[in-house]
Amino acid sequence: MKIKTVLSLSAAAVGVAALLGYREAKRKRQAEPDPQPEQTLDSELEARMQEFMDHDRFPLFIQPVVELATGKVMGGEVLPRLDHPQHGLIYPDVFLKVVNRMNFQEDFDLYVFRKSCAWLSENRGMKSVSVNFSRKTLSRPRIAGLLAGIADEYDLEHADLVIEITEWEKEDHIEVYRENLRQLRELGFKIFLDDFGSGVTSIADLNQCDMDIVKIDRSVLLAAESADGGVILQTLIGMAAQLGVDVVCEGIETEQQEELVRSCGGHYVQGYRYYAPISAEELAEMLAE
Ligand code: G
Ligand code: MN
């Protein structure tokens, strides 16, 4: 892929820039102590969530996923931020809990999916994008048809769109959820199980449908590094392989972690060692070069 050379040349710069942006925002927040406690920010976000969505204040960032053997970019995970008029960029761990509390998951996930489709249709130097979906959204009836409709509006192959099942909370209606996943697969979408090894995502989830990829949570990597010398990581990757599923190891930051993943049989990686999340505009420019 052409993106490979472009990205590897500027990867360090972009990664550092993205991190600096983050630190800058964080430093700014620390320098001017927020007069409002966290709860007040939450209720402010809640009161303005609809406005933020209507005014399209969620810029997309995309973090490339890399094949270890070749260094090639296989696709990218879409990670939205809230561009808050007063507080600057706010991260999903802050605003998603508000989205969840408001029961806004479906509107929000569909909004991000549509935006992701629009971006991908304009940037075909990227093979595919994966979009996070809450289990709540995936438990709503007719979701598969809705997603297919949006993908078709942008003339995208369903196979270039990945539905990433995030943790956050358990599915509402297991039967509807399973049927939706079955339909999504039948329609040709790819399905990744996110955050495996953390929180509510369990081994039982591997049985809910045929997955294309399981994303192993960073916590598994950290545990492997500190204690068991990789037995758990190796076993998880082996188990996935036996189920005919590939694995993406998330949150790789160091060379040692990369070696650990390699020695445990992992093929795909995502993490600051390769690319930080890159703003959709910046990534578009890189792809265009
Ligand atoms: O749960 P999910 O896998 O969707 O979360 C991805 C999150 O992890 C994003 O917020 C992203 O910014 C963050 N992230 C990506 N790469 C790394 C990394 O190498 N280290 C750490 N600590 N976080 C990362
Ligand atoms: Mn994810």
What is this structure's SSE topology?
Layout: H1 3-31, H2 38-54, E1 60-67, E2 73-80, E3 82-84, E4 88-90, H3 92-101, H4 105-122, E5 129-133, H5 135-138, H6 143-153, E6 161-165, H7 174-186, E7 190-196, E8 213-216, H8 218-228, H9 231-242, E9 246-250, H10 255-263, E10 268-270, E11 278-279, H11 280-288
Parallel strand pairs: 2-5, 5-6, 6-7, 7-8, 8-9, 9-10
Antiparallel strand pairs: 1-2, 1-10, 1-11, 3-4
Helix pairs in contact: 2-3, 6-7
Question: Mind explaining what this structure looks like?
Answer:
It is built from 11 helices and 11 strands. The protein is of the alpha/beta class and 289 residues long. The strands form 2 sheets. The protein has an 8-stranded mixed beta barrel, surrounded by 4 helices. Strand 1 and strand 2 form a beta hairpin. Helix 2 packs across helix 3 and helix 6 runs parallel beside helix 7. The two termini are 13 Å apart. The N terminus is likely disordered. The site of guanosine-5'-monophosphate (G) has 14 residues, from strand 7.
Overall helicity: 40-55%
- Order of H and E elements: HHEEEEHHEHHEHEEHHEHEEH
- The quaternary state of the protein chains shown equals single chain
Radius of gyration: 19 Å
Tertiary shape: globular
The number of helices is: 11
Beta content = 15-25%
Low-confidence stretches: 1-29
Largest sheet: 8 strands, mixed, barrel
Question: What spatial order of strands do you see in the largest sheet?
Answer: 1-2-5-6-7-8-9-10
Structural class given helices, strands, pairing? alpha/beta
The small-molecule ligands in this entry are:
guanosine-5'-monophosphate, manganese (II) ion
Average of pLDDT? 87
* CA-CA gap between termini: 13 Å
Task: Give the beta-strand count.
Answer: 11
